[in-house]
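Sequence, please.
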């Protein structure tokens, strides 16, 4: 059930970003080659999605960090390749497709690649601390262990009576020969 909830959040954040990215790619492609446009949009959306997935989809409770960004970038590179191949294939069979057709192909490829990305992110990138409840349970267990260790240390400590210092004059008198 938790995986389904995570997947639903993944679809909302990743799909929402994908839907926003979809029209951006062809609009930028007017100014530059389509491949470069797709690369720029993929890079920007990957950074945004990795942060959203770290904080909300997989509920790590913190920012993604550089390691997770690089790992996520690897899965995004595969998604980039899938969308590029899909659009290049479309252009091979239909040299001048309409924007709607191009969007349909692009978003379909993105959806398939996104499903694969979810599996990679869930199983590898955010595998530790992916479950918010598990992270809270582990934190509570560590706190309980620390409290138990402190109680054990206090219970086993030997309490020694405090000694009062002997005045110097009294020590001299006690040691002097009579």
């Amino acid at each position: 059930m938790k995986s389904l909830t995570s997947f639903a959040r993944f679809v909302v954040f990743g799909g929402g970003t994908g839907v926003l990215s979809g029209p951006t790619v062809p609009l930028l492609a007017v100014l530059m080659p389509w491949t470069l446009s797709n690369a720029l949009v993929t890079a920007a959306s990957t950074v945004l999605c990795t942060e959203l997935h770290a904080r909300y989809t997989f509920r790590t409770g913190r920012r993604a960090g550089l390691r997770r960004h690089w790992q996520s970038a690897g899965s995004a590179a595969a998604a980039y390749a899938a969308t590029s191949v899909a659009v290049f294939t479309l252009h091979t069979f239909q040299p001048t497709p309409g924007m709607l057709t191009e969007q349909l192909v692009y978003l379909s490829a993105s959806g398939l690649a996104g499903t694969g990305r979810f599996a990679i992110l869930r199983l590898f990138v955010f595998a530790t601390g992916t479950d918010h409840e598990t992270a809270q349970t582990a934190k509570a267990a560590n706190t309980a262990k620390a409290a138990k260790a402190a109680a054990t240390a206090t219970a086993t400590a030997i309490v020694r009576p405090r000694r009062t210092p002997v005045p110097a004059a009294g020590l001299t008198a006690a040691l002097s020969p009579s």
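Residues 65-93 form the longest helix (29 residues).
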